[in-house]
Amino acid sequence: MRAWYLVPGAAGLAAEPREVPAPEPGPGQILVRLHAAGLNRGELTSAPGGKPKPGGMDGAGEVMKLGAGVTQFKVGDRVMGRCPGAFAEYGLLDARETLAVPQRLSWEEAAAVPIAFLVVYDMLLAQGRLKAGEWLLVTGVASGVGVYALQAAKALGARVIGTSGSADKLAKLKPLGLDVALATRVADFSDAVLKATGGKGADLCVNTVGGTVFAECVRALGFEGRLAIVGYVDGSLRSEIDLDALHSKRLTIFGVSNKLRNAEQRGATVRGFEASLLPLLADGRIRPLIDRVYGFDELPAAKARMEANAHVGKIVLRIP
Fold first, then answer.
1. Which of 65, 80, 230, 244 has a C-alpha 20 to 30 A away from that of 115?
2. Per-residue pLDDT of the chain (320 residues; tens, 9 = 90+)
């Protein structure tokens, strides 16, 4: 089968097409004929070094074969989920992390859901405890995770403040319900957040940018505020910590990552998402925002668009 590999080099990761054997499902696994896969910044911006690896982290496709013990799906079902090596014609899904595709979603829309929306469920609901009427602050709101956080928060009845270095990107998010748009690339937004919230501060902040805005996020939080650390596109892994603010405002800071979680823990997140946010996708209250769909042979161009921060929402690879 055709597959894309990510190969480390002096300039970072390069996408390389290869012919490899199609996989076979083991116990608890599902073999899927992939129709589309989502691009995720984390795997495409890794530091140089290491070995070549199959590209892709999540996708959507048709069930072709079931491994031993899989009873909740059947051949021909439309499914989506976490799929290491998803930039390929076939892939393996763990049945515990697999979801049925809602009827109204296209293959491309389904492929844009799993990783990003599972992250959103984790940071907004499982850990963030976001409630109707609360204020959510999202730095880098035009990213895939940022856009989905905006959509989910609005569906839950929260109000959303978003930052982006592009006023044009913020304008595109206004129809999705963005309440307050702050055009900035630097750590200068806490006063605007306090003003927008009547001096209260944000109840939950999602930091997709990194260490350069961490201290400003803390300043923008209100009493018993929560801060989710999701990514660090700025490349900065260090920041000052205002212990007095952390102490006096009774803040909670948490990470959102699957790197050290086992399949059972990831599966629990999938089930939580399935119960809380998937119905919003199934009935159309949330619609995946796709920035652009690229053909299978166009992965290098899709990767370049993501690395240039030119996208609003998700970039998707169509697999013929």
1. 65
2. 999 999 998 778 899 999 999 999 999 999 999 999 999 998 886 555 688 999 999 999 999 999 999 999 999 999 999 999 999 999 999 999 999 999 999 999 999 999 999 999 999 999 999 999 999 999 999 999 999 999 999 999 999 999 999 999 999 999 999 999 999 999 999 999 999 999 999 999 999 999 999 999 999 999 999 999 998 989 899 999 999 999 999 999 999 999 899 999 999 999 999 999 999 999 999 999 999 999 999 999 999 999 999 999 999 999 99
| 3-class DSSP state of 161 | strand
| Secondary structure element (H or E) that encloses residue 172, with its range | helix 167-173
Residues counted in the chain: 320
- Name residue 168's amino acid: D
E strand or H helix that includes residue 136: strand 135-139
What domains lie within the chain, and their CATH numbers?
2-113+288-318 (3.90.180.10), 117-255 (3.90.180.10)
Nearest to 96 by CA among 290, 258, 313: 258
Structure letter (DSSP) for residue 107:
H
Q: Look up residue 146 and give its two tokens.
A: 């940022």
State the virtual CA torsion across 233, 239, 244, 249 in degrees, nearest 10.
10
Pairwise CA distance, residues 93 & 205, whole Å: 32
